[in-house]
Amino acid sequence: MNNFQIFNHISGLTSKMVTEKYSTSFSRASTLFKPEIRQHIYNIYGFVRFADEIVDTFHDYDKAKLLDEFEKNYRDALENGFSLNPILHSFCTTQREKNIPQHLVDAFLHSMRMDLGDIKDLNDEKYNEYIYGSAEVVGLMCLKVFVDGNEEEYQKLKPYAQSLGAAFQKINFLRDISADYTDLGRTYFPNVNFRNFSQQDKLEIEKDIAKDFEHSLIGIKMLPMSSRLAVFMAYKYYTNLFKKIKKCKPEILMHKRISVSNARKVYLFGEMICLKILTS
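RESULT FIELD:
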């Protein structure tokens, strides 16, 4: 391995470490990908995670400036084919190798910029714009990796990947209502008054999420085997979280972050391992 290959390897390891440190469930699911896919998913996760951290976490810093620098460095890395920032270097490697369209990355960065502004009282159009850029395009970036250049498969599976990304994001919104509303002053769901978040409001949101999950499952069953189990594992994790959220009263969600227990996560992973053995 020459020195440039060592740098590429270190960049990939950094993206993997970011995935493992920020999301144990996602990194566990990622182990079910075939090796030729896994690193690319780490590379995508590292990029979207760091952009998201800028707008959600670094409150004591100038977040607009940080995001500007992040985007500039990303565009330089893409143009030059190299960056000393290992997260950007590995993401741009994946974007080039898997032909991830630029408009997907641009839509993602646009949604991150929306988080720097006033996220409240969104209308349906703005809400759908945010969901598309913050979640659906991430599903589409991953789908580009899964189909490995097969454009016909990509177009066929695209709507299902978007539905899965949307379902995950809407669950995240429900799970994080307390922090988003109380700490950040954000309210993502349109036409909902969070000063009086009612059971009917919650039921309407859940109905929408259930439709997304139902649609996405059709696509998961059509994915190549090299990615199907890992995506199904993520689906199972989120549908378990959805079941727990559905059992909670609105006032509980406004004060408590709901999660799936570690024991349940391990059980779900065990189920997937058994399925993998039986289908291999």
